[in-house]
Design brief:
The structure is a single chain. With 80 residues, the chain is mainly β. The radius of gyration is 14 Å and the shape is elongated. The chain has one helix and five strands. The chain has one domain. The mean pLDDT is 90. The protein has a five-stranded antiparallel β-sheet with strand order 3-2-1-5-4.
């Protein structure tokens, strides 16, 4: 069971190639500096969804992309 209000997804992929890893982390004990890894099925069971917040980093030396995505439980548009 995930008690955190958000989950951070880290993705590593070869540039225009295969996905190498996809990992998920939640903050521990409400802190924002310590994280613990969870599995994707935990997100599905707790109804977390990807929100339109991300950052992509490119490493030209290793020909890789690194992505950071945020997931929230039951996200809604709070502007409406």
């Amino acid at each position: 069971m995930i008690l955190s209000p958000y989950v951070v997804q880290l993705v590593r992929q070869v540039n225009y190639g295969p996905l190498e890893s996809k990992r998920y982390f939640i903050p521990t004990d409400g802190t924002e500096s310590d994280f613990v890894e969870v599995i994707e099925n935990d997100l599905i069971q707790a109804n977390f969804q990807k929100v339109n917040t991300y950052k992509i980093y490119k490493c030209q030396g290793h020909n890789k992309f690194f992505g950071v995505n945020i997931y929230q439980k039951d996200p809604i548009n709070k502007h409406h």
